[in-house]
Amino acid sequence: YQRRVREHSEFFLRMTSQPFFSKVTVTRKQKYQYNTGFGNEFQTEALPNALPHGITTPWKCPYGLYAEQLSGMPFTVPRSSQQRSWMYRKRPSVSQTSAFVKVPNGWLTSDFSRAEPDPNQLCWTAPEIPQEPEKVDFISGLHTMAGAGSPSMKAGVAIHFYVANVSMEKTAFYNSDGDFLIVPQHGGLDIRTEFGCLEIFPREICVIPRGIKFSVALLPDPSDESGKLGARGYVCEVFDSHFKIPDLGPIGANGMANPRDFMIPVAAYEEDSEYTVLTKFQGQLFKYTQDHSPFDVVAWHGNYSPYKYDLSNFVVFNTVTVDHPDPSIFTVLTAPTTSPGTAAIDFVCFRPRFIVQQNTFRPPYYHRNCMSELMVNLEGVYEAKRTTFPPGGMTLHSVMTGHGPDTKTYETILGQEPEKANSPGVLSDQIALMFESYYMFSLTDYAKTHNQNPTYRQVWDNLPCNFSPTQP
Q1: 292 belongs to the catalytic site
Q2: Distance of CA 266 to CAs 27, 68, 70, 300, Å?
Q3: Which entry of 373, 379, 383, 436 is annotated as an active-site residue?
Q4: Rg (Cα) of the chain, in Å, rounded?
Q5: pTM, two decimal places
Q6: What pLDDT digit, counting tens, does each position of 357-378 carry?
C-alpha cells in the first residue's frame, strides 16, 4: 500500500510539473477587447458619453443616435429571468430599403415533422471543406443533420454542421428561431455582431442569441501551415430557452464553467455601406436589403448579448475513488425546458483530465438513456472508441438505444494487468463534445444520404460473453 501511495504521489508530481493541458490551452493574444462575466449587466460605448445617463430613451440621444431595445425574453418574466439590451445606433433596424423576400434554404431546415425515425446507432465522418472554384460562406454552408420540435412553437432543437471557404461579404444574418451555439472544429471565425466583434478558434465556442445580427469572416486554422482559408464546425440551435451555466448544487460555489471566463464583446461600429440581411424565420430563409451597415451600434447596455468561452477553462470534476461519473458533471451550458432538471440541450465537454478510479472499468459505461446523445469528436482519440471515431466525426445514439465502448476498447481494458488498470493516468489526447437532449431526434434527408458510416454498428460485433455461473 505504501509503495502504491509513493508511486501515485510521484506520478502526480511529475504530471503537474508538465503543462499536459497545453494542447488545449489557447495562449494566443486576443485581437479584440472583451467584458467578462456570464449573465452580467454591461454598458459599453465606442464613443465617449454615447450612453445616456439616468434615462433610456431621451428626447434626443447623444450623437444623434436612435435608441432601440432588443428583447430576449417577454416583458413580464421574473426579473431574475429577464434578458434584454438597449442599443444606441445610427439607424434603427426598421430602416430597410426592401421588403422581406423568401430565398432558397439549401440544406438548412427546421421541419422534422415528416422525417422518418431511425433508432439505429449512427456515425458520420467529417464533412469535406469546399474547394475552389466553389464559394461557400458560413450561412450557405449550414447543413441540418438532426433535430426535434418546431421553432413556431418555440420548443425543440436542431443540430447543424457548417463548412465554408469564403467570408460573408456585405451580408448579415440573424436567427428569429432560436439561439446559435457555434463550435469550430477546423479554422477560425471572425464574427462581427451588432454588439461588437468576437474571434473564435477550435477549442473555443460562441453563443449568438436569437435575433442578434452577425457576419462571419474566415481565419486560417492555427494548425494549418498552408494558411489556406477553410472552416468546419458544428452549430447547436435551441428553440426553447436561452443557454445558461448549470447550477452547481453540492459542488459548491466554484467550478465547471466559471462565470468570469465568459467573454462579451465591447461596442464597435463600422462605416455605412449597402448590406443584404438574411433571417431564418420558422425554418425558412428570407432576405432584405438596406443602404447602411447593420453593425452601427455605437453604445449598448444590458444583459442580452453574444459571448464566447474557451473550453480549456472548464474546471473538471471527477471521481477519485471508484466508478465512472455520469456525464452531467461535464456540462458547460444547458438550455432548460419547463420541467426542472430536464434540458432541451446540455452541451457537454470531455476534455483532458486525470483518471484515478480504482477497481473500475474506466471508459464510459454501457448505457441506454431517456435522452438523445449526439457526440462530436473535436480532436484526438476518444476514450470509448479509440479507432472508430475520428476527429470531425459525429455519432447519434437515440433515446433508449444501447451504446458504449466498442469491442476493441472493452477487450483492451479487461486485458490489462491489475496494476496497470489501477495506475493513475491522464486523458491528454481528446476533446469530445456532446449535445444531449430530452427530445427524440429525427434525421434530415441530408443526414440519411451523406457521409454516413454504414459499418459503424459493427464496432460492437463480437463482444464476448464472459459469464460463468461457477466463477463469481
Answers
A1: no
A2: 21, 17, 16, 9
A3: 373
A4: 24
A5: 0.93
A6: 899 998 889 999 999 999 999 9
